Predict the 3D structure of the following.
Amino acid sequence: MDIAIVGAGQAGVSLATRLRNLKHDGTISLIGEEPVAPYQRPPLSKHYLLGDKSFDSLLLKPASFYDEQSIALLTGRQVTFIDRDNQRLEFSDGTTHGYDALALTTGSIARTLPAEVGGALEGVFTLRSAKDVDEISASLFATGERPDGKQGRVLIVGGGYLGLEAAASARKRGLQVTLIEMGTRILQRVAGAETSAFFRKLHHDHGVDLREGVGLDHLIGTDRVRGAKLSDGSELEVDVVIVAIGVGANAALAENAGLVVENGIVVDAQCRTSDTSIFAAGDCTSFPHGDSRIRLESVGNAIAQAEASAGTITGRDDPYVAKPWFWSDQYDAKLQIAGLNIGYDRVVTRNGTSSSPSFWYFRGDALLAVDAVNDGRAYMAGKKLIEMGRTADPDAIADPGHDLKLLLRP
Ligand SMILES: Cc1cc2nc3c(=O)[nH]c(=O)nc-3n(C[C@H](O)[C@H](O)[C@H](O)COP(=O)(O)OP(=O)(O)OC[C@H]3O[C@@H](n4cnc5c(N)ncnc54)[C@H](O)[C@@H]3O)c2cc1C
């Protein structure tokens, strides 16, 4: 059986690797449009943006891996159409590639600002690929200084994890940073007010001008961005803009091929799309979770779902059950998140006034998720409890003297 995987990112590599581990002995083609070998994205907004890490250190596998595993890695090749009737992929250069089974691991696409508000001006960047970061670094971002020796000014649009990580990296680079979030608080979509408050203070303490409830009206400049007018009427001078306003599933290829797409490529619990010979995994999918469907943008999901789809392709029938986890690094704060807080009605705080607090989300008596800052023990305890389907006594959690290990006792 010839298996083609479109999208040579985290999920694509995990899927190809797992297929070989499961003794698939047919061909595997791993196809990516980026001109480089597959790499990790999380360091892009952290150490790579800071200039602390080389591109080579981001590679998901050493160069020799693909040959050793007989995985044909095709980079710099964009798939433009899936001819389902003939089980054939079409590339932008007009060539084609047949398949018996196809896996789509096309990831996400960063939302951009429309050109009408200045999104096409020079100096305006998104942060999704290594190329994006190389371009940001080639701007004054790397030195923190403008050509006239003055401190560079960066505007970050969007107060989610990506925007906040970019803000932390920019401050470490010596830039003056303004971050605007049009929602009433940063991290509104993903975290409770307690977690937002912790990170708001952290960024204030590091000198970020953080403005919540303020959106972008438009960017100012003719060719290059030089300023921004905000929704509250204020104006800022700006040298670099990083747009971190979320991502959408990269599902156009699937949609054009007539696959069912609703907030991502719709897959069942076995990672099958609406075409029995096409599978999908990672950021580009929406999959069953309890009574509803979700789409996750995380490394943990990309790996686990890709491995599950390799199982399905090689004849297993195990359903994929997501065990969500995520992390974010900002300054010296390492946030680790276990579970999903969707539908929470109560947050219990542990060590709230320290630099290592954790925030525990409940719905009724059920423990849903934990946000733990600089506290690996709280993260691990929360993760284990959630994965075992157990809960914990909120009073015990709130008591910093209570040993979390006791919560895990049968
Ligand atoms: C800056 C940044 C920081 C992040 N930080 C974290 C973090 O701290 N923790 C965490 O858990 N997650 C983090 N994430 C999210 C995480 O990186 C993604 O969830 C993960 O990479 C998803 O893997 P994927 O394989 O689904 O998609 P991707 O890794 O995006 O790979 C998809 C690949 O498919 C290629 N492709 C798409 N269409 C085609 C086509 N038509 N033809 C050929 N190739 C195509 C794309 O170019 C891309 O290389 C971060 C993401 C970014 C961008």
